[in-house]
Amino acid sequence: MDSQNFITWNADPIIFTIPEIALPFPISIWGIILSVVAIYFGYKKITPAPVKGKEPSSPPALHFWSLVIGALVVGQLPFLFISSPALESIGPIAPRWYGMMFALAFISGYSIGYKLFLDAGKPQEELDRLLIYVLVATIIGARLGHVFFYEAEFYLRNIHLIPQVWTGGLASHGAAIGIIIAMWLYAKRTAGVTFMWVADRVVPGVAIGGMFIRIGNFFNSEILGMPTDLPWAIIFERIDMLPRHPSMLYEAALCVIVLAVLAWIYFKYNNKPPEGSLFGAFLVMLFSGRFLIEFTKETLADFLQGSLFDMGQLLSIPFVLIGAWLLWKKVNWKKEGAPLRR
User: Fold this and answer.
1) Integer Cα distance of 75 and 27 in angstroms
2) Which of 4, 44, 243, 279 sits at 20 to 30 Å (Cα–Cα) from 76?
3) Within 13 Å, how many C-alpha atoms sit on residue 139's CB side?
């Protein structure tokens, strides 16, 4: 294969770098925490009382910034006399493309969730609480998924490394399990919603979020495909000079397709899709696609080298079966709002 015939990708995963900045005086870490607590409770004090029949109002900008500055200053005062761990410098700061894409995943998912909750007449406070559930579950689930599905032997010998998410190692199947548990807990603790209702409002955001995450993987030159001579193969120069399947971009495109189908179902039923329909369709489409795309990837689990299926495929099968069962047995396609068009 002539490498000159293929696209070469060698992007730096770091967006930009700000060198270390020395602070004029040490800033107490405990003082910062104290300031945040003071701001949290102080904000409630300066917020005008709600007026019946009117939208809640925010505190005046002058009051807010006075609170923030005052809390930051007062929070540091006790630690002028009390020993405390302190920051003496900031940086170097090196934001990464993956981190930005991870943030965009949650911002876009929240925006879609806001639209769906608004259509259902649910308050934004319920969505904000759901976001916390999903955010925490995604990180914990993705990390534990990688630990137990791909490198269990290593991490069982080095348990102290498990919380070090920043070193890399997140598994999307683990994130999926974490999100499902989070949705179940949220539905159980929230009046007026069921697990299926919540799941239908979460999975469109997960689909668009998955697209951003896979683009982040592209910037990191990770989740590599196997070598190929197909005309759209890409040489990831930071790894080697072999043209490979851009498997992470295949998955990004899959997420876009899944989102488009979910949107079609949602609007076809006048914003009232049959309960479980979006969740079931999401599981079938996303994980069927993942199963097929895994054939183009390098095997991540060393203990499955040479096997017919890799770990990603084995983990996808239960999700596909559950989704198909939901669509066949549990979704009442005639119960919700009438379709817009036949």
Assistant:
1) 10
2) 44
3) 14
pLDDT tens figures, 23-79: 888 899 899 999 999 998 898 888 887 777 676 677 888 989 999 999 999 999 998
Q: Residue 21: pLDDT above 80?
A: yes
Longest dimension (CA), the chain: 74
Task: Report the distance separating Cα 18 and Cα 89, nearest Å.
Answer: 12
pLDDT digits over 263-298, tens only? 999 999 999 999 999 999 999 999 999 999 999 988
Cα separation, 199 vs 281, whole angstroms: 11
Residues 141, 179 contacting (CB under 8 angstroms): yes
Buried b (16+ CB within 10 A) or exposed e, 259-269: bebbeebbebb
User: Where would I find the H helices in 120-246?
Assistant: 124-150, 152-157, 172-188, 195-219
The yes-or-no verdict on residue 162 having pLDDT over 50 is: yes
Which one-letter amino acid corresponds to residue 255?
Answer: C
Tell me how far CA of residue 302 lies from CA of 66, 156, 197, 281, 311, in angstroms. Answer: 56, 16, 39, 32, 10
Dist CA 262 CA 114 (whole Å): 16
CA distances in angstroms from 100 to 97, 114, 129, 130, 252, listed in the order given = 5, 21, 22, 21, 16
Cα–Cα distance between 236 and 11 in angstroms, integer? 9
The Cβ-side half-sphere exposure at 18, using a 13 Å CA radius, reads: 7
Q: Per-residue confidence at 218, pLDDT binned at 50, 70, 90?
A: very high
Average pLDDT over residues 300-314: 69
Task: Please spell the DSSP secondary structure of 290-320, one letter per residue.
Answer: HHHHGGGBPP--GGGTT-SS-HHHHHHHHHH
Helices (H), 49-171: 61-76, 97-119, 124-150, 152-157
